[in-house]
Specification:
- The protein folds into 2 domains: 44 residues, no CATH class; 64 residues, lambda repressor-like DNA-binding domains (434 Repressor (Amino-terminal Domain)).
- The chain has 7 helices and no strands.
- α4 packs across α5.
- The radius of gyration is 15 Å and the shape is globular.
């Protein structure tokens, strides 16, 4: 059954329900837990796309800022989520450094951002 999020409270509840599953690790989830995580992820993504639509033709920095806004991350938290140093993220946000392929892959896998959107965002520089 497809889960639908109707308001911000349900969004926060879904995010909270995802945390222990993500902390457990993908390879340690039971089939039922995997299904639940997939349903929650789909519902969260659908709600976020309605409530916080990604700008049309965003540049890479706009994508990172969008993640910070929608997920409530500060730079330290986002750098931890992306497995990069705080100084690397700060440089990217300040447009003095450029993302590498590993960062693009991580954004695609962790946040399910379309790889084509990520590549196109780099050409907007």
């Amino acid at each position: 059954m497809k889960k639908t999020i109707k308001n911000k409270q349900e969004y926060f509840l879904a995010m909270a329900a995802m945390e222990p599953l993500l902390a457990k690790g993908f390879d340690k989830l039971s089939p039922e837990e995997e299904k639940k995580l997939d349903q929650l992820t789909d519902a969260v993504e659908e709600w976020e796309s309605k409530e916080y639509p990604l700008p049309v033709n965003p540049d890479f920095v706009a994508i990172l800022e969008h993640l910070m806004q929608t997920r409530g991350y500060n730079q330290t938290e986002l750098s931890q989520e992306l497995d990069i140093s705080k100084s690397q993220l700060s440089g990217i946000l300040g447009r003095t450094k450029h993302p590498n392929v590993d960062l693009l892959i991580n954004l695609h896998q962790r946040f399910r951002i379309d790889g084509n959107v990520l590549l196109q965002s780099l050409s907007a520089r």
